[in-house]
Every structure is written in structure tokens, then in C-alpha cells.
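Exercise 7. Predict the joint structure of the components listed below.
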Amino acid sequence: MSSPVTHHAVHAAPKGFLRRYIFSTDHKVIGKQYYLLALFSVFVGMLLSVLMRYHMIYPDAKVSWFEKLWPTGAAGGIMTPELYLSLMTMHGTIMVFFVLTTAPQSGFGNYFLPLQIGAEDMAFPVINMLSFWTTFAALVVLLAAFFVPGGAPLSGWTAYPPLSAVGEIAGPGQGTGQTLWILSIALFCAASLMGAINFIATTIDLRAKGMTLMRMPLTCWAWFVTAILSLLGFAVLLAAGILLLLDRTAGTSFFLPAGLVVNDQILNHKGGSPLLWQHLFWFFGHPEVYIAILPGMGLTSTVLSVFARKPIFGYRAMVYAILAIGFLGFLVWGHHMFVSGMNPYTGIAFSVLTMAIGVPSAIKTFNWIGTLWGARIRFTTPMLFALGFVSLFVTGGISGIFLGQPALDLYLHDTYFVVGHFHMIMGVAAIFGIFAGTYYWFPKMYGRMMNETLGKIHFYLTFIGVYAIFTPMHFVGVAGNPRRYPNFKEFEFLGELLPVHTFMTHAAFFTAAAQLIFLFNFFWSMKKGAKAPVNPWEATTLEWTVPSPPPHDNFGGRLPEVYRGAYEYSVPGAEKDYLMQNEPAVAVKE
Amino acid sequence: MPLAFIVWAFAIVIVYVFLARLWWFPPPINQHGIIYDQHFLSTLLVTGVIFFLAQLALGYVIVRYRDRGQRAVYSHGNNKLEVLWTSAAAVLFIGAVLASTRVYAGVHLGRPPENALRVEVLGKQFAWSFRYPGPDGKFGRTDIKLINDAGGNPFGLDDTDPAARDDIVTSALRVPVGTPVRLTLKSRDVIHNFFVRELRLKQDLVPGMEIPLVFQADKTGVYEIPCSELCGLGHHQMRSTLEVLTAEEFRRWEQAQVEQLRQLQQP
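Solution:
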């Protein structure tokens, strides 16, 4: 290892179309495949949410094409409550797994982790390919649930038993639809486990010479810790999913107690506990929140530093905060269960740990403001989305301080306050991270620039739109509005909140329409955008040292050598206002 | 630049809506509700200040440090500041949760008073049932094989048990004002959730478990009970009411129920 200039032929560039673009083992192709899968999924998920919002305020509306899509769920063109619930289940599942888990980690991570640490590919390219195609299969199986008798499941993305465990006597969609849901999640878990070992091995073993852990860009730290969370979290979800499947198909009673009478039928189960599922599910489910948001936090840190032309404020503190979030993330699952019937003393323990996890999150926010302090800000589209991320992260994080207290959760649990909270933070803040990543890395991925004017219009409309949708959810939540209600006709106090829902629905239409600008910009720029130079943003990390797009083996057979950290901007005495990580001679020391 | 003004505008609007209480809790009807509201307000105050200052600061740096040709400051951070804001955040967050423990403990960790009125709450897809022990003060035997919703026996009361024969079963929860009530929450199919906004109380009903919930309503009136845990296609219709009656009204109502049962059971 004396010289970095050694030739590594990990695998030669493949020839035929199939091996190059479909069953490719190139991390860059796989990264794009994941990204496009997430892009497809996010539009499906968004469409479902728009239909839900429409149904909430016009539950009796007759829309002829509803019937074409769902002949039983919307017979006569009027959407049934059970169809609403299945749209909700599919919306949540698609967004959490196939968008928020897939795009930032499997998509961007796959493409840019090897480039940023100076590797030619991921550690296990074939497993990487297998992981993508397993995810693809998981998505197909999930969407198939729409087309089976009974339709998609209606038990929500959390699939609490007994509702999810007793079959179609609990409602339409709880038969084949729910089984497909579990199979899809099991496949997704398997794919995520393969991805996780790949990310961990790559980060530990394939860093270029001089790329010490403490010189890694914060994106790499985030992907690394996210991979560890995936490894530990998805393993548990996979096990829980198999147990649930056995309860449904093999007559076991892991989650089903004795004495169940569902729909006038006495069920022959005994000895199980519905709470066991909740513990297992949230042991995965809470780290999952960080799986979704950590890569966005890493990217926001990088983008803020690049366009502030300033080193990241408190790099070490940022690394420790990521590690602390990763660790504490496994100790707080019980805060989803404050009113579930678990021992109240446990609730107090979980709430203290939950508040503790707020501390590293606060550290990150302070450091982002610190990075911007004394900066010279360039307002590019990726920068706007990163700034938007900070604003949304603060807003979404603050409501967490309410929900993390079991006392306040006694009222707020399962109200729209919760819906507003998690959409703000793990929904749109994470999506803003994905948008920032898209605008930032598109030139490297596709060799062309995205249109900045369209990008800015997209940003402003989306930023205003998401605040308009999700802020009022907190207000109706404080008024006690329960979540997962298809309409608000049965309760007097909900009728009074209908105008707020009408407002949110219109805001959702507006925001969804604005995403078409993004879609157009994305595909138009792919063909017609201005040619991207090697380093359009004057950034310092290694992906900006290779052509856009990079060659098959990334660094042209010459692995880079790294001399400094990832955030050397505006160094006094330097010629330019940025120093590349692989630039040997400098006027100043670190 | 415009971003700063949008961020500030949102911060101001959000703070205004909370201050003006445009959408708010209904007035509380119990002691716990009063304490709950106090704690909610103090949390709102502390977090509201943090929220407002953070958004203000974000907008400020956006305006102040936009590219005007200046040179950016070269700094990798400041350890003193890191320690300062880490400790400040820790004290604030942990402080909030410790303060709230009192409110939580008041609901779940206290002992129910001896004289509490005992009521069983049963959830099923998609209706609520309530059972009172009747004049003998004892809940009678039940058997799931005897469950008959159409025949008015959602609990599966066993008539061969004398203690079961006087149990009162209703579809609305009626309680006397100013009297402690001890609910026992049960579900016979899937998970449901008992929620009364005015009591600031929410608790799941889990099949296989009997979960106690104690409250005392101090104001008469009728309050809605929405199921607050997804239970299936009729979740949004699973409604009942809590009717807080005067002591006299409650006594008369209970008497009427007992009388009615007696007449029904005459051979």
C-alpha cells in the first residue's frame, strides 16, 4: 500500500444492455435504480395522500374514475371508509419503506459512499445488485395488494394485531392483502440487511489512503450509522413479521390472547400478547425514523458548508451527535406506547431517554446555525432545500418535546398533533434532504445541470405548501382530532374542525401540483440540461474530482490519496476559497 | 433572501395561532385536566421561545450572511459553545419531562379511592358497552359463548349467576359528578382506545388485558368518546358519550335501570 497509484480491477465494465443497466453490479447504476424506484414510489404515495385528503372533506363525492380503479372499494364512484383506510396503509408503507428508507440511504448512499471515501465500488457488488432486486420485488408484492380480492390492508403501516392477525373477519383487505403486506415487508427487510452489511463493510474497509474516519464527510458518517441501525432494526422487524405471518396462517398465538370474539366468531387462540408486536415493531420503528432522517442530516451539513463557503461548525460534535442519536435511537421505542397499557413506570423511563435524544438533535441545529454564522451564502437550489430542512427540522423537533412526555401524550397520542409532528420531521424534512441531494448531486449522476430557476420555484412553492399542510394538523390535534378517521361526520367536535381540514386539503393539492415542476425539471435536465463540469459547486469532497458522470471504475484506476478533512472552505492564505480533500500542497495546516 | 421573510412569517403565524388559541382544548372537567393544561402551557411557553428564536436566527443568518462579496470566516467551531448549548438543551429537556412526571403519576400511579364507582368498559368493532355491578356491588360471571349483541348481551353475561342478573349494561357511560370512578378497560376483538377530551385522558383497550383508569368528573354535561386507536372500517363511527349527572340524577337513573331489569326477569 505504498502508493495510491495502484490499479484495482474490481470488475471490468460490462458490455450488454442487461448487465449494464438492469442487472448491474456497478454501485452507481444501482444507486440510480434505487433512486428511480423511490421517485416512482413517492409519486404513488403522494397520489394516495391527495385522494385521502379529498375523501376527508368530500366523503360522499361521486368520482367515476374511482370506480374504475377500485370497483368494490369505490362502488358507484363513492369511496368507502375501508378504501380510505387501505389508501392510508399503503401511503404510509410506501413512503416509509420505499421512499424515506430507499432514496437517501440506498439511492444516494450507494452512488456516493464509494465516491466520497475513494473506493472503486461497494464491498460486495453482487449482494448490492441482489439487494436492489429484492427491494424491487418487495414493491411489486406490496402494490399487488391493491389487486387481490378484498384489496389492500387497512391496519395502517404499523399493522397492530389482532387487527392484522385474524384475517378477513376483521375487515376487507385483512385477508390476502395483509398477507402480501407482510411478505413485502419481509422481503424489504432482507434487502435492507444485505444493503446494511455492504455499507458497513465498505466504510470500514475501502477508504482511500489518508481518509481517516475523522476526515470523512458527514454524509458518510450518516450512511455508516444508518447502516448499523438498519442491520439491528430490520433484523427484528423481519422476525416479528414472520411471527405475525405464522399467527395468520399456521394457527400460532404469538400476538393473540385467549377469548377473542371477532365479528361474532370465537377464535381459538391463547397465550399471545398484542403488546409484544408493538414492542418488536417499535424496536425497529423508532430507529427507522433515524434511518430516514440521518442521511438528510449528513447531507444538510455538507450542503450548508459548501454554499456557506465555511467549514462545518463543530465537525467532531456533529459526528458524536450522529453516534449518540444512533445509540439512543434503540432505547426510546416505548414512547410510541405510552397509552398502550404497558407498565406506567416503563413510560417514565422511556420518556427520560426520549428527551435525552433531543439533545444531540439540538446540537446539530446549533451547529448548522453556527456554520451559517459569518458565512458567504450562495443561494443555489440545493442550499435553499438544506435551509428549508433546518427550518422544518426545528419545527418538527419542537413538537416532539410535547409528545415525548407521557403526561402530555395522555391527550395528544393518536391525534393529528402526532400526524403533524412526524410528517414535519421524518416526512418533509427528510424529503427536503432528498431534494437537496437531488439538486446537489444530479450534475454528477447525469452529467448535466438541473434548471436553477425551475428549482427555485419548486423550492418556494413546496416550502410554503408543506407548512400550510402540516402546521394546521397541530392545531386540530390540540383540539383532539383523532387520526385515521376517513371522515368527520359522526362527532360534533370534529365538525367544527372541518374548515381547517378543507384548508389542508387545498394546500395538499397545491403542493402536489408543484411537484410536477420538479418531475419536469428532472427529466428535461437529464436530456437538455447544461453540461456539468467536474466540480460545479466548488466543493471539496472526492466525488467532485472525477468526471460528471464518473467512469465505471470511478477514479480511472488511480485511487485518490486524502490529505485533509472534508470542509476546508475560505482557508486564509489559500488561492481559492476551497481546498480539495486530495490536493497535496497547501499553504496552511489543518 | 425571500426565504428569511417566509421563515419569519411562518414563525409569527404559528406563535399567533397558539397564543390566540384559535383551535384549542375544550375546557377541562377534572382536577387532572387543570394540571394537564398548566403543564401543556409551560411546555408551550418554553418550546415556543426556542422555536421562535431558532427560526428568527435562521432568518437572520440568511439575510446577514448572504453573498455580498465578503470573505467567509474560517472557523471549525468553538468547544465552549458546544458544551454550553449541549448542557442547556439537556437541562431543559430532562427538566420538562421530570416536571411532567407528576401529572402522569397522578393518573396512573395513584391508588383508586375505596368509594370509587366501578364500571367495566368493553370495546368491540365498532361499539362501546359499559357494565355496572348493580345493587349487589358485584360483577357477575361472563362467558364468551353467551355473547349476543343483538340480544343486548355484549359482555356474555351468564344469567345462571345471581351476581350477573343485576348487572346493568349500557351503551353510554353515565357517572355522578364529583365522584371517583374506576374504569376497567377491556376489548374482545382488536385494540380500541378510550378517549375523553375534557378529561385529558386516553387509554388503549387491549384484548387479553384489563387496564384500570381512574377519574373524577367535576362538571355535569355530555362529552363525546371517540375511539382513538385504529380498529377497522368503522373506527370513525365508534362513538359513545360520557354523561356526567348530578348525584340525584344518577341515583334515579340507576334505580330505573334496576327496576327495568327486574321487570324483564319476571317469569
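Discussion. Chain B touches chain A through 99 residues (CB under 8 Å).
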